[in-house]
User: Which sequence fits this backbone?
DNA sequence: AAAAAAT
């Protein structure tokens, strides 16, 4: 199957246009604007997959799409059914067709690209399913809005991890191969003198993609100009704007750009925006903007089968992974096993290695060099099983991954509540672009059972239970039903 | 009894 991002399905309901009055409050004395905010909130719940036929139709049947037009304020936009309709440069179209091997815009692309690429360049908050092509949306946005003649940073993309920044730079360079647009990855360097920002000339790359700390550092030492920035992207925006440690940096970058550069378009992309973030974001993005949201009940991917299995202890977790899931693994592609802590990653790695099972591990405690190497080996297909903390929970795109194992369930800090957003991001590592996949949740104890059921409630779905962890047939049935046997 | 970025 070609790596095709295509358009939408027929049975889905039309996106509803709802115009909302300002739900943004005046931010205080220093922000006297209070101008009426007009924001269109567009429900793209129709992005859901056709349940009866159980196939991801919108990837293959672009001509059936019923999304025709959505409007924001007084500006009408028409969805794009082909990339040609978007007035992209021939060089960029060549990148899409030849380098990326795309054929048609996916649903989120069809809806959002006309809004991103055309005046008046409104700010956009866009939610879409995992693996549905959000990266292409903002990458095209950055590439097509950059003035090739101006050798200065004009587009920023802020990402939560160095891995995601590297991945996004790779996509941008591939997609923009024929455009001549230059890019720079702003992530913590290896510490060598040559790469030290103080020893480098000012950045002239037209697109800068990186992590917030490094971008801020480059800005504060005056090596990274924001004067010409006209498009600012936050990948995994809910995370970047809510998490302590990210939030302040993200807002500082945004404010600095808005102070020095006029009319900077802000794009916020993620598969998850909980209500807290939604409310917070409307205070950040002021003025006329567009919001595209998906109902949480429709977010989980039907192409990825989810399972849960009760196990008595840690040893049985390892045995389930090795003797039940991997044992029948001829059709398995690559697998990611998520753990809660760095320490858990290390011990699980030890267990699997002791049992003679090859795997690699990535977590934030490793050196930059090791992290880059582990990810490269996995992306090159040299390793099959990767143990990871939530470092890789978001955005990591490796199409050969069709198995995700939650060795530890994703929980919030106090561990009594599930982290539903992280759950959704984790399972989204399997089933990229509508591919098949399986997720196994290993539940150990009553607390895990409770957390699992809260996750099921949150997304309004039921996760199939594998009745007995010792029973091989249960796992064979599960893997078979997920298409991995 | 946390992961992430970076100082």
Assistant:
């Amino acid at each position: 199957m070609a790596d095709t991002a295509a358009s939408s399905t027929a049975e889905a309901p039309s996106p509803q246009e709802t115009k909302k009055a300002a739900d943004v409050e005046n931010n205080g004395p220093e922000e006297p604007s209070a101008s009426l905010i007009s924001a269109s909130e567009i429900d793209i719940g129709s992005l859901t997959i056709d349940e009866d036929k159980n196939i991801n139709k919108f990837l293959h049947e672009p001509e059936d799409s019923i999304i025709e037009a959505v409007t924001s304020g007084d500006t009408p936009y028409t969805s794009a059914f082909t990339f040609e309709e978007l007035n992209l440069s021939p060089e960029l179209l060549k990148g899409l067709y030849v380098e990326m091997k795309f054929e048609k815009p996916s649903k989120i692309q069809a809806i959002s690209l006309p809004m991103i690429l055309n005046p008046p360049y409104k700010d956009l908050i866009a939610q879409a399913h995992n693996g549905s092509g959000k990266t292409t949306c903002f990458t095209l946005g950055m590439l097509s809005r950059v003035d090739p003649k101006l050798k200065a940073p004009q587009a920023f993309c802020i990402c939560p991890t160095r891995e995601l920044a590297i991945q996004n730079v790779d996509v941008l360079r591939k997609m923009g191969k024929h455009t001549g647009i230059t890019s720079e990855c702003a992530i913590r360097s290896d510490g060598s003198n040559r790469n030290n920002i103080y020893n480098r000339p000012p950045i002239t790359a037209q697109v800068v993609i990186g992590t917030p700390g490094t971008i801020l550092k480059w800005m504060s030492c005056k090596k990274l100009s924001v004067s010409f920035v006209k498009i600012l992207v936050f990948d995994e925006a809910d995370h970047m704007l809510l998490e302590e440690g990210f939030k302040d940096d993200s807002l500082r970058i945004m404010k600095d750009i808005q102070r020095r550069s006029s009319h900077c378009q802000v794009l916020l992309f993620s598969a998850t925006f909980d209500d807290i973030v939604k409310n917070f974001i409307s205070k950040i993005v002021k003025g006329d903007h567009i919001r595209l949201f998906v109902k949480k009940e429709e977010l989980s991917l039907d192409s990825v089968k989810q399972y849960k299995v009760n196990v008595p202890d840690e040893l049985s977790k390892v045995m389930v992974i090795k003797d039940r899931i991997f044992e029948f693994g001829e059709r398995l592609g690559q697998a990611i096993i998520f753990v809660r802590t760095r320490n858990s990653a290390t011990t699980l790695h030890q267990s699997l290695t002791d049992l003679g099972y090859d795997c690699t591990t990535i977590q934030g405690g490793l050196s930059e060099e090791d992290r880059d190497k582990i990810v490269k080996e996995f992306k090159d297909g040299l390793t099959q099983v990767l143990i990871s903390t939530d470092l890789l929970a978001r955005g990591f795109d490796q199409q050969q991954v069709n198995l995700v194992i939650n060795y530890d369930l994703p929980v919030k800090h106090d561990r009594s509540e599930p982290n539903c957003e992280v759950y959704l991001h984790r399972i989204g590592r399997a089933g990229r672009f509508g591919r098949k996949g399986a997720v196994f949740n290993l539940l150990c104890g009553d607390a895990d059972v409770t957390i699992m059921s809260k996750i099921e409630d949150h997304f309004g779905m039921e996760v199939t239970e594998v009745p007995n962890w010792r029973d091989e047939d249960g796992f064979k049935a599960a893997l078979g039903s997920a298409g991995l046997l």
